[in-house]
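Predict the assembly for these two chains.
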Amino acid sequence: MSGELERFRYDDDVVRKFVAATLLWAVVGMLVGLILALQLVMPALNFGPWFTFGRLRPLHTNAVIFAFAGNALFAGIYHSSQRLLKTRMFSDALSRFHFWGWQAIIVSAAITLPLGFTQGKEYAELEWPIDIAIAVVWVAFAVNFFGTLAKRRERHLYVAIWFYIATIITVAVLHIFNNLAIPAGALKSYPIYAGVQDAFMQWWYGHNAVAFFLTTPFLGMMYYYLPKAAERPVYSYRLSILHFWSLVFLYIWAGPHHLHYTALPEWASTLGMLFSVMLWMPSWGGMINGLFTLRGAWHRVAQDPVLKFFVVAVTFYGMATFEGPLLSIKSVNSLSHYTDWTIGHVHGGALGWNGFLAFGMIYWLAPRLFQTKIYSKKMMEFHFWTGTIGILIYIISMYVAGITQGLMWRAFNADGTLKYDFMQSLIKIIPMYWFRAFGGLLYITGVIVGVVNIALTWASRPKVYEDKEIEAPALKPITAPDPEPPSPLKESGAHVVQIAYKLERFIEGAWHRTWERLPLTFSVMVGVAVVVASLFEILPTFLIRSNVPTIASVEPLTPLEQYGRDIYISDGCYNCHSQMVRPIRMETERYKPDFSKPGQLTYSLPGEFVYDHPFQWGSRRIGPDLHRVGRKYSHDWHWDHMMNPRSKLKKSMMPPYDYLFRDPIDFSAITDHTAALVKVGVPYIRYEVENADKLALWQAKKVAGELTKLLKAQNRRVPPNLQTKKIIAVIAYLQRLGTDIFRGPKDIVRPWLDPKWRREIKLSQPGGKD
Amino acid sequence: MRLSDIMSNMHLSHWAQIALVLFMAIFLGVVLYLVVFAKRETMDRMARMPLDETNGQQAKPNNGGGADE
């Protein structure tokens, strides 16, 4: 009975589909990236409202991560898993559903992001209905994958499969926890976390998304396709297992370097730092393992462009994983954070590691999937060289820009004043922005040539694909226990000897062989362990309220200011502006408000963010930090600046926001938003929720009145119906930002808390074209 | 009553340390296994898995045991 051959066919059709989608989205995502690079040197390329930098940047990141890298890893997983498990995928229908569902999600992202529907959290921008769709499609993928595991014809799981399992489980957990939000409309929601907690959640997600979406699946692919292309087994299988386990167990713990100011004890935090530095070892172990796989085959690398792509990919994996721990060291981070160094780092990883591994894999797959010869090896070479040179120009220019700007920010004169203002640090790096755009252009040129090459390869495919039948014996259920080898110890009746016998068996490794026979059970157990353990790590830090001391003078935003904040989020201002003044002198000096008293704390305090759903600390300062911008300028300054930033600062690359001067405030939405914010814990009083729209109008009239006075004093025209325009809400928000801790008892932000005010003021109903 | 109130009262913060120790222990276990117990033949056979595409099964039928027996 054992070993009877079964016949089956692999499903390559779905792999072909994922490959095509990978190529399509590569071009789209990278072109958007190029547009962004050009917008920074030619701000006139900002076509508002849909195509401004702040709205396009999330489209770029989502497209390259989830559309390009996502489709590539699905192609790799569907192709290699079937072979490694010797079975067709569990369900063709689920495979199709996964493919089309994922593309639908990408298309909806490409539509909603430019329209300004966003959760405002980096790499988790998509709004709640799309998040639900992602969860559904991901579950379908998981069912399909684990179903395939269950019906496999190969007992042992190759290490690539382990990497895939870790990906599927962890991404599900990350996605669900980071996106817990209360809807406030069809395409609007507020995360249940606020401020510091939201930041922890977001960067726990962000940190591990890089690990489990861009690293583990691609490592699985490396461990499968590199040996395939090199036609030799991986250098050390032992090392690959070590690589897997250390990533899974260490990566999650590298998180605490994002977790300062928490209840996490000092020693755990320090150990967490140690863990991130320890990640160096397995990552480099992985890189060495990849490169050594080619031992004795280097002459083939010279001739085979596929191997060239892999060599560069693995090298960039090593570089990026060297740089990552380096950037997590506090002193380095204080320089690099918010600068283009980070941008250089991620592009080394994305273009070098993910991009080149994906293209290498596709070039290896293409002749096999399309059952013909690759159209042109010369074009592959061209792609390889333009790509490699493009990456180098890109990352070197970003390193120079980042370090230059970081050093300029922290430069002091002898008398203790700052040496450079923000604009000087920006103008200095503009040439680097040109180089970056050029590097990106080179890379895309290579990609487009690659796409044409694959398309022409596809064009010469046979009329009908040969669908080869595969034979493999079915997997026999495990019945017989591990035969126990004879041992003199076993025969003895003595108690102590029995223990010695058990010990002997244990040391022989019988336990592990027993486990190995139950890989599915084992892997599920491991998966659960990882999930539970990482939740143990993260739950306390983001769910315990006492972690963040509240500040009495910090109050929730008014409904109008909150609406302004929603516009800030929707227009993606956080892609250029941070709201986090770090407790470092160069920062407090630069962002200190004029009205702060000497000796007063001016850096950002955790308690200032307790009503921020979501937090908006940002990660890159293309413009200056805005946390202390409140009351820095007059209303009319913001008015002019938002209409045309270059009217104030000639070299500013901030997009003009003229449409905010035309678009009307949606007062009815304000009511819904306020109600949703109460649900996530913002302590608005009932009066405020019930009258949110009217209170917003009341404040809008006040701000518009103040602005009108300023404009009239300059003999300027005042547009009609000022109080109904979005710009008023944005100005109200900007003027409130970061001012609460400086408030005296007489500066009242929500006068309606006073019952007398509520009795005396008659609110008018918004609506009607007044 | 909010989720964070419940969580706050569960005194979870030391769980992180338990998890950390667990992680470390499992990790050391894996290292120990690889260095001490893993058999060369098993490793070599596993390493060759991607290279064998068609039937892949060894002459030996699947009996669940590793090749190291």
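Chain A touches chain B through 71 residues (CB under 8 Å). Confidence is low (pLDDT under 50) at residues 260-264 of chain A.
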